[in-house]
Design brief:
Layout: E1 9-13, E2 17-19, E3 27-29, H1 31-40, E4 46-50, H2 58-71, E5 74-78, H3 89-94, E6 98-101, H4 106-116, H5 118-127, E7 131-135, H6 137-140, E8 145-148, E9 156-158, E10 168-170, H7 179-188, E11 195-198, E12 202-207, E13 210-216, E14 223-228, E15 234-239, E16 242-243
Parallel strand pairs: 1-7, 4-5, 4-6, 6-7, 8-10, 10-11, 13-16
Antiparallel strand pairs: 1-12, 2-3, 8-9, 11-14, 12-13, 14-15
Length: 245
């Protein structure tokens, strides 16, 4: 595997997999997850699934393995319950081309990652050129923070993300009505810095810490830039997305 460690890619999404319609957990990679594989530059990419945010849910993990098999890519996973399933977490993550982080509780994910040193290993993998990607909690975690339902149905801020990216993040922007107003308030009052958000089916591609492109699996799905306006409020700018195959 050859990488240029200067090419540090993060694809932070509100998507990445699609149901086939043949069963609740019969999934396929969407264009966004296939795009993450392309970004790795590997001819036979290795992908690791990390489902910490869902408590290492077996059903979702089996669905991801099925999707990987359909794509013909080599898959593995990192589980932390009831103990790490690999002997050396750091070595396993550094040996991947792409790391996919699933959705769920970002607060629990961050706590467990720090307990097991996964936070440090993720940063090292990113710096080594491993493509980091994920959905929902798997998008929020790379940022300074964002809005989360980790603590209950009323959304609350989270501000202790890994901060690989120096921005706030909003997910499910078009499908969960609490997301937009809370993110606006958090940016307006300085709880979160300049932030980027995604509709379901959209993603943010960062190279290093620079947002270089917004992408989408479906027409009409957008990304957004939210920043303080200097008057006690925010300005929200819709970002055009490139439709993926």
């Amino acid at each position: 595997m050859t990488r240029d460690s200067r090419d540090r890619h993060i694809l932070a999404t509100s998507g990445g997999v699609e149901a086939t319609g043949r069963g609740t957990f019969d999934w396929r990679f969407s264009g966004m997850l296939r795009y993450a594989l392309e970004l790795s530059g590997a001819t036979a990419p290795r992908i690791c699934f990390v489902n910490t945010a869902s408590g290492d849910n077996d059903v979702g993990l089996r669905a991801m393995y099925g999707a990987a098999a359909f794509e013909g890519v080599f898959a593995s996973h990192l589980a932390l319950f009831t103990m790490p399933n690999v002997e050396d977490v750091r070595a396993h993550l550094l040996g991947q081309d792409v790391i996919w982080v699933g959705g769920g509780s970002v607060a629990n994910l961050l706590a467990l990652w720090r307990l097991h040193g996964v936070d440090r290993a993720m940063r090292e993998a990113w710096e080594a050129g491993v493509v980091l990607t994920g959905v929902s909690a798997g998008s929020l975690c790379w940022h300074v923070g964002g809005t989360t339902d980790s603590f209950g149905p009323e959304l609350r801020p989270i501000t202790d993300g890994l901060a690989l990216l120096p921005y706030g993040n909003g997910v499910h922007y078009d499908s969960e009505e609490q997301r937009r107003p809370l993110l606006h308030r958090l940016v307006a009052d300085g709880t979160l810095p300049l932030s980027f958000a995604t509709d379901d089916g959209a993603g943010l591609h960062y190279v290093g810490t620079a947002l270089v492109e917004a992408v989408a699996d479906y027409p009409g799905k957008s990304a957004y830039r939210i920043e303080r306006d200097g008057l006690g409020g925010v300005t929200e700018t819709r970002l055009e997305t490139r439709l993926l195959d």
